[in-house]
Protein backbone atom coordinates (compact mmCIF):
# COMPACT_ATOMS: atom_id res chain seq x y z
CA UNK A 1 0.00 0.00 0.00
CA UNK A 2 1.30 3.45 -0.85
CA UNK A 3 1.96 5.99 1.89
CA UNK A 4 1.17 9.66 1.98
CA UNK A 5 4.72 10.86 1.37
CA UNK A 6 3.90 12.76 -1.85
CA UNK A 7 0.39 14.07 -1.43
CA UNK A 8 0.81 16.57 -4.29
CA UNK A 9 2.42 14.15 -6.74
CA UNK A 10 0.24 12.18 -9.19
CA UNK A 11 -0.06 8.63 -7.89
CA UNK A 12 0.65 5.72 -10.23
CA UNK A 13 0.12 2.00 -9.75
CA UNK A 14 2.42 -0.21 -11.83
CA UNK A 15 1.30 -3.85 -12.06
CA UNK A 16 4.17 -5.78 -13.64
CA UNK A 17 5.61 -9.18 -12.67
CA UNK A 18 9.04 -8.61 -14.25
CA UNK A 19 10.96 -7.41 -11.20
CA UNK A 20 13.76 -5.79 -13.19
CA UNK A 21 11.35 -3.89 -15.44
CA UNK A 22 9.00 -2.87 -12.63
CA UNK A 23 11.85 -1.58 -10.47
CA UNK A 24 13.37 0.40 -13.32
CA UNK A 25 9.97 1.89 -14.16
CA UNK A 26 9.40 2.86 -10.54
CA UNK A 27 12.79 4.59 -10.28
CA UNK A 28 12.32 6.38 -13.59
CA UNK A 29 8.78 7.58 -12.87
CA UNK A 30 9.71 8.67 -9.36
CA UNK A 31 12.56 10.70 -10.86
CA UNK A 32 9.91 12.39 -13.03
CA UNK A 33 7.94 13.44 -9.96
CA UNK A 34 5.38 10.64 -9.62
CA UNK A 35 4.40 8.72 -6.50
CA UNK A 36 4.67 5.08 -7.62
CA UNK A 37 3.36 1.88 -6.04
CA UNK A 38 4.38 -1.52 -7.43
CA UNK A 39 2.34 -4.72 -7.58
CA UNK A 40 4.09 -7.80 -8.97
CA UNK A 41 1.18 -10.23 -9.30
CA UNK A 42 -2.47 -10.17 -10.20
CA UNK A 43 -3.83 -10.61 -6.69
CA UNK A 44 -2.01 -7.64 -5.20
CA UNK A 45 -2.59 -5.71 -8.41
CA UNK A 46 -6.35 -6.09 -8.07
CA UNK A 47 -6.25 -5.18 -4.39
CA UNK A 48 -4.36 -1.98 -5.15
CA UNK A 49 -6.40 -1.11 -8.25
CA UNK A 50 -9.64 -1.23 -6.27
CA UNK A 51 -8.28 0.37 -3.09
CA UNK A 52 -9.54 3.75 -1.87
CA UNK A 53 -8.45 6.43 -2.30
CA UNK A 54 -7.81 5.53 -5.90
CA UNK A 55 -4.69 6.07 -7.96
CA UNK A 56 -4.46 8.75 -10.64
CA UNK A 57 -3.39 6.19 -13.26
CA UNK A 58 -2.69 2.45 -13.52
CA UNK A 59 -0.01 0.88 -15.71
CA UNK A 60 -1.17 -2.72 -16.13
CA UNK A 61 0.67 -5.62 -17.77
CA UNK A 62 -1.60 -7.88 -19.79
CA UNK A 63 0.28 -11.06 -18.82
CA UNK A 64 0.58 -11.81 -15.11
CA UNK A 65 1.31 -15.15 -13.42
CA UNK A 66 -1.79 -15.69 -11.29
CA UNK A 67 -4.46 -13.70 -13.12
CA UNK A 68 -4.33 -11.71 -16.34
CA UNK A 69 -4.36 -7.95 -16.59
CA UNK A 70 -7.66 -8.29 -18.42
CA UNK A 71 -9.23 -10.02 -15.42
CA UNK A 72 -7.97 -7.24 -13.17
CA UNK A 73 -9.29 -4.57 -15.54
CA UNK A 74 -12.69 -6.25 -15.86
CA UNK A 75 -13.09 -6.61 -12.09
CA UNK A 76 -11.88 -3.09 -11.37
CA UNK A 77 -14.32 -1.59 -13.87
CA UNK A 78 -17.11 -3.77 -12.48
CA UNK A 79 -16.39 -2.32 -9.04
CA UNK A 80 -16.70 1.20 -10.37
CA UNK A 81 -13.01 2.08 -10.77
CA UNK A 82 -12.75 4.79 -13.44
CA UNK A 83 -9.01 5.37 -13.13
CA UNK A 84 -7.25 5.66 -16.52
CA UNK A 85 -5.50 2.39 -17.40
CA UNK A 86 -2.48 2.06 -19.70
CA UNK A 87 -2.09 -1.58 -20.75
CA UNK A 88 1.29 -3.14 -21.55
CA UNK A 89 1.05 -5.83 -24.22
CA UNK A 90 3.41 -8.11 -26.13
CA UNK A 91 4.80 -7.25 -29.53
CA UNK A 92 2.15 -7.61 -32.22
CA UNK A 93 -0.42 -8.87 -29.72
CA UNK A 94 -3.40 -7.45 -31.60
CA UNK A 95 -5.98 -9.63 -29.88
CA UNK A 96 -4.82 -8.45 -26.46
CA UNK A 97 -5.09 -4.80 -27.48
CA UNK A 98 -8.62 -5.35 -28.75
CA UNK A 99 -9.63 -7.10 -25.52
CA UNK A 100 -8.12 -4.32 -23.45
CA UNK A 101 -10.03 -1.58 -25.25
CA UNK A 102 -13.26 -3.56 -25.01
CA UNK A 103 -12.84 -3.94 -21.25
CA UNK A 104 -12.14 -0.28 -20.66
CA UNK A 105 -8.41 0.28 -21.17
CA UNK A 106 -7.60 3.86 -22.11
CA UNK A 107 -4.38 3.25 -24.03
CA UNK A 108 -1.82 0.54 -24.68
CA UNK A 109 1.93 0.34 -25.14
CA UNK A 110 3.71 -2.53 -26.87
CA UNK A 111 6.77 -4.11 -25.30
CA UNK A 112 9.62 -3.39 -25.66
CA UNK A 113 9.13 0.35 -25.29
CA UNK A 114 11.18 3.43 -24.50
CA UNK A 115 10.59 4.88 -21.06
CA UNK A 116 10.19 8.30 -22.69
CA UNK A 117 7.22 7.00 -24.68
CA UNK A 118 5.69 5.51 -21.52
CA UNK A 119 6.04 8.89 -19.82
CA UNK A 120 4.45 10.67 -22.79
CA UNK A 121 1.47 8.27 -22.75
CA UNK A 122 1.02 8.73 -18.99
CA UNK A 123 1.14 12.51 -19.27
CA UNK A 124 -1.37 12.48 -22.15
CA UNK A 125 -3.82 10.32 -20.20
CA UNK A 126 -3.54 12.49 -17.09
CA UNK A 127 -4.09 15.66 -19.15
CA UNK A 128 -7.15 14.14 -20.79
CA UNK A 129 -8.55 13.09 -17.44
CA UNK A 130 -8.06 16.62 -16.09
CA UNK A 131 -10.01 17.99 -19.06
CA UNK A 132 -12.91 15.55 -18.96
CA UNK A 133 -15.79 16.34 -21.26
CA UNK A 134 -18.79 17.67 -19.28
CA UNK A 135 -22.31 16.61 -20.13
CA UNK A 136 -22.88 19.95 -21.84
CA UNK A 137 -20.27 22.26 -23.31
CA UNK A 138 -18.88 23.83 -26.46
CA UNK A 139 -15.75 22.49 -28.14
CA UNK A 140 -13.55 23.31 -31.11
CA UNK A 141 -12.06 20.44 -33.06
CA UNK A 142 -10.91 20.15 -36.66
CA UNK A 143 -12.26 23.58 -37.55
CA UNK A 144 -15.73 22.75 -36.20
CA UNK A 145 -17.52 24.14 -33.15
CA UNK A 146 -19.67 21.53 -31.42
CA UNK A 147 -22.32 22.55 -28.89
CA UNK A 148 -23.26 19.44 -26.95
CA UNK A 149 -26.21 21.05 -25.18
CA UNK A 150 -27.77 22.32 -28.40
CA UNK A 151 -26.50 19.38 -30.48
CA UNK A 152 -25.31 21.78 -33.17
CA UNK A 153 -22.18 21.88 -35.32
CA UNK A 154 -20.93 25.09 -36.96
CA UNK A 155 -17.91 26.20 -38.95
CA UNK A 156 -16.97 29.89 -38.95
CA UNK A 157 -20.39 30.61 -37.49
CA UNK A 158 -22.28 28.79 -40.25
CA UNK A 159 -24.27 25.60 -39.61
CA UNK A 160 -22.70 22.34 -40.78
CA UNK A 161 -25.27 19.87 -42.03
CA UNK A 162 -24.71 16.40 -40.64
CA UNK A 163 -26.95 13.37 -40.67
CA UNK A 164 -28.18 12.08 -37.33
CA UNK A 165 -25.68 9.21 -37.45
CA UNK A 166 -22.80 11.49 -38.42
CA UNK A 167 -23.55 13.75 -35.47
CA UNK A 168 -23.99 10.77 -33.12
CA UNK A 169 -20.60 9.39 -34.20
CA UNK A 170 -18.91 12.79 -33.82
CA UNK A 171 -20.35 13.29 -30.32
CA UNK A 172 -19.42 9.73 -29.33
CA UNK A 173 -15.80 10.23 -30.35
CA UNK A 174 -15.73 13.66 -28.72
CA UNK A 175 -16.88 12.30 -25.37
CA UNK A 176 -14.14 9.66 -25.64
CA UNK A 177 -11.56 12.15 -26.93
CA UNK A 178 -8.07 10.72 -26.97
CA UNK A 179 -9.43 7.24 -26.21
CA UNK A 180 -9.68 4.63 -28.93
CA UNK A 181 -13.19 3.43 -29.81
CA UNK A 182 -13.14 0.00 -31.40
CA UNK A 183 -15.36 -0.79 -34.38
CA UNK A 184 -17.31 -3.15 -32.15
CA UNK A 185 -17.96 -0.41 -29.60
CA UNK A 186 -19.07 2.04 -32.31
CA UNK A 187 -21.41 -0.53 -33.85
CA UNK A 188 -22.91 -1.27 -30.45
CA UNK A 189 -23.11 2.23 -29.00
CA UNK A 190 -23.82 4.39 -32.07
CA UNK A 191 -25.47 2.02 -34.54
CA UNK A 192 -27.08 -0.25 -31.93
CA UNK A 193 -25.87 -3.26 -33.90
CA UNK A 194 -24.25 -6.46 -32.60
CA UNK A 195 -20.45 -6.48 -32.64
CA UNK A 196 -20.44 -9.47 -34.99
CA UNK A 197 -21.89 -7.41 -37.85
CA UNK A 198 -19.34 -6.64 -40.56
CA UNK A 199 -19.85 -3.22 -42.12
CA UNK A 200 -17.84 -0.46 -43.79
CA UNK A 201 -20.53 2.06 -42.88
CA UNK A 202 -18.37 3.32 -40.02
CA UNK A 203 -15.58 4.20 -42.46
CA UNK A 204 -17.96 6.06 -44.75
CA UNK A 205 -19.31 8.14 -41.88
CA UNK A 206 -15.82 8.88 -40.59
CA UNK A 207 -14.81 10.02 -44.09
CA UNK A 208 -17.93 12.21 -44.30
CA UNK A 209 -16.93 13.89 -41.03
CA UNK A 210 -13.35 14.34 -42.20
CA UNK A 211 -14.65 16.03 -45.35
CA UNK A 212 -16.12 18.90 -43.29
CA UNK A 213 -13.17 19.13 -40.89
CA UNK A 214 -9.64 20.45 -41.27
CA UNK A 215 -6.89 18.13 -42.45
CA UNK A 216 -5.88 16.33 -45.61
CA UNK A 217 -4.25 13.14 -44.34
CA UNK A 218 -3.94 10.80 -41.38
CA UNK A 219 -1.41 13.04 -39.66
CA UNK A 220 -3.64 16.13 -39.76
CA UNK A 221 -7.14 14.68 -39.35
CA UNK A 222 -8.78 15.16 -35.96
CA UNK A 223 -10.39 11.73 -36.32
CA UNK A 224 -7.44 9.36 -36.47
CA UNK A 225 -7.42 5.71 -37.50
CA UNK A 226 -6.11 3.14 -35.05
CA UNK A 227 -5.39 0.55 -37.69
CA UNK A 228 -7.13 -2.76 -37.27
CA UNK A 229 -8.97 -1.51 -34.18
CA UNK A 230 -11.05 1.64 -34.67
CA UNK A 231 -10.85 5.42 -34.37
CA UNK A 232 -10.07 8.17 -31.88
CA UNK A 233 -10.61 11.92 -31.86
CA UNK A 234 -7.75 14.22 -30.87
CA UNK A 235 -7.26 17.94 -30.37
CA UNK A 236 -10.69 18.90 -28.97
CA UNK A 237 -10.48 22.20 -27.07
CA UNK A 238 -13.24 23.45 -24.73
CA UNK A 239 -14.65 26.85 -25.65
CA UNK A 240 -17.00 27.34 -22.72
CA UNK A 241 -19.14 25.33 -20.36
CA UNK A 242 -22.88 25.18 -20.78
CA UNK A 243 -23.24 27.30 -17.66
CA UNK A 244 -21.31 30.12 -19.33
CA UNK A 245 -22.82 29.71 -22.79
Give the topology, please.
Layout: E1 11-15, H1 19-31, E2 35-39, H2 42-49, E3 57-61, H3 69-78, E4 85-89, H4 94-103, E5 107-110, H5 115-130, E6 137-141, E7 144-147, E8 152-155, E9 158-159, H6 164-175, E10 181-182, H7 183-189, H8 201-211, E11 223-226, E12 230-233, E13 237-241
Parallel strand pairs: 1-2, 1-3, 3-4, 4-5
Antiparallel strand pairs: 6-7, 6-13, 7-8, 8-9, 10-12, 11-12
Helix pairs in contact: 2-3, 6-8
Question: Could you characterize what this model shows?
Answer:
- The protein has 245 residues and is α/β, with parallel strands linked by helices.
- The chain folds into two domains: 11-130, Rossmann fold (3-Layer(aba) Sandwich), CATH 3.40.50; 137-244, Winged helix-like DNA-binding domain superfamily/Winged helix DNA-binding domain (Arc Repressor Mutant, subunit A, Orthogonal Bundle), CATH 1.10.10.
- Helix content is 36%, strand content 22%.
- The protein has eight helices and 13 strands.
- It has helices at 19-31, 42-49, 69-78, 94-103, 115-130, 164-175, 183-189, 201-211; strands at 11-15, 35-39, 57-61, 85-89, 107-110, 137-141, 144-147, 152-155, 158-159, 181-182, 223-226, 230-233, 237-241.
- 30% of the residues are buried.
- Residues 1-7 and 241-245 have low confidence and may be disordered.
Summarize the structure.
By secondary structure, the protein is an alpha/beta fold. It has helices at about 20-30, 40-50, 70-80, 95-105, 115-130, 165-175, 185-190, 200-210, and strands spanning about 10-15, 35-40, 55-60, 85-90, 105-110, 135-140, 145, 150-155, 160, 180, 225, 230-235, 235-240. A hairpin with a 3-residue loop joins strand 11 and strand 12 (about 230-235).
Amino acid sequence: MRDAQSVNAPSLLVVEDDSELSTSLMLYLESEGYDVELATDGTSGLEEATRLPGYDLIVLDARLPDRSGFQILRQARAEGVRTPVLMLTGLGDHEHRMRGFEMGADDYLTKPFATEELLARIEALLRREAQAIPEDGVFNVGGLTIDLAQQTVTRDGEPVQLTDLEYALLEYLLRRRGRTATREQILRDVWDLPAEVETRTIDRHVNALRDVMDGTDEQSWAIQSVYGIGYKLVGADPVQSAANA
